[in-house]
Design goal:
Blueprint (H helix, E strand, L loop, with lengths): L8 H7 L9 H10 L12 E3 L9 E2 L3 E4 L4 E2 L2 E2 L5 E3 L1 H6 L4 E2 L3 E5 L8 E4 L5 E3 L3 E5 L5 H9 L1 H9 L11 H5 L8 H35 L17 H7 L9 H11 L5 E3 H4 E3 L11 E5 L14 E4 L7 E5 L4 E4 L8 E3 L7 E4 L2 E6 L4 H9 L1 H10 E2 L5 E2 L1 H6 L1 E3 L3 H38 L1
Parallel strand pairs: 3-10, 14-19
Antiparallel strand pairs: 1-11, 2-6, 3-6, 4-5, 7-10, 8-9, 8-11, 12-23, 13-20, 14-15, 16-19, 17-18, 17-20, 21-22
Helix pairs in contact: 4-7, 4-14, 7-14, 11-14
Length: about 450
Amino acid sequence: MSQISHIKLKDIREARRYDAEYFKPEYLEIERKLNRENKNLKDFDVKIYHPNEIKREYVQENGVLFVRTQNVRPLKFDLTNEVYISKNDASRLKKNKISNNDILMSRTGANFGQTCLFNEGIEAIASSHTFIIKSGKINPFFLSIFFNTELGRKMIDKGMYGGLQPEITPTHLLKIPFLNFPQSFQLQIEQIVKSAHAKQTKSKQLYREAEELLLRELGLLNYEIKRVIWFTTTKKEVEKACRFDSEYFQPKYADIIKKIEKYEGGWDTIKNIAHFKDKNYNPKGDQTYKYLALSNISNNGYVQDYQREIGKNLPSRARRQINTGDVVISSIEGSLSSCSIIDQEFDNAICSTGFFVLNSKIINSETLLIIFKSKIIQELLQKGSKGTILTAISKTELESIKIPLLKPSIQIQIAEKIQESHRLRKESKDLLEEAKRKVEEEIEKQ
């Protein structure tokens, strides 16, 4: 339905915006609710810093954490695929330094406007695509929640400019109207957020314990994977593998396989252990589905978000139906660690054909997840990947990978830890949703 807004010329001149989208009626209505005290974020001494650009050659595998837009999720700091820069480089980039209780916001790209509180207690440097926000007189826990409410998010969206690459400016953000919420209410929200963060921390700890339990059982807890510069192989091995890329024959892979074969509980190939669900599913055109893409899977083995869409609007790669207890594993080299268990919330959902979907009667789903995400199997997945423009692992290569047949008692312990980890994660998510709801209700009351 068409909408018409009557805007004063002085408001257009003040905003320096002439696009109708900026003056949408819903944006004006939200501003009316938030502007009752004629204050904006700048009036509360909020400061927004735009970090300096960091050259690609600075990035390395260890040192000071380098925070990119992909690490900034709604109300969640995601350490998936972390990268670093050297301490020397970090010390020179003072404008990029992140402190505890800073708020991070993606200023551009696909994650534009996503916001979370940084409270990791570690040294970190932000990319130039991420704003560092100091909350001033506003409780930082409260402000991070506000930005993630429906009202706050729309105020961010209002300032978007650019088409293919949307962006936001500090000037717009500082002009967002804001109410002088009582300190007691802000502290109440802070306590809810802290409780949610505590559950997140415990959830991550249980996940690490499950990983350690697997590696300890295999005698690989402190195992270091060593890559050598030069090595030899035989013509027979090359012909057998039908591979001519040298990386495939790295001795580290043979060492890992020997370790698996020595496990006292035995081993078998994935082909003999798991059932693959690889038949195409054709979504019904008028039915609404939950759709999972590779980007929707977290580093801790769970679904962190999803898309809701009717069948006819789903992408052509949305052809795998998933059910409770299935394990999804990315086939794309750059995201091989994107593995997850499908819980009840996503029963009968659809996922991308970029995933393998499988389950097993021999190894429970939680243990299967931990095995696939372990450093040793991740290496074997890397080994099996091939391609040029889009490197991926084929079903045949995946089926040939050897995995340990963990003892039932160990599987039970791993399952208990992962189930508790996922329960705490869900409780944390529910608490954050409660905090958002309380802030929205307070805005409506005032």
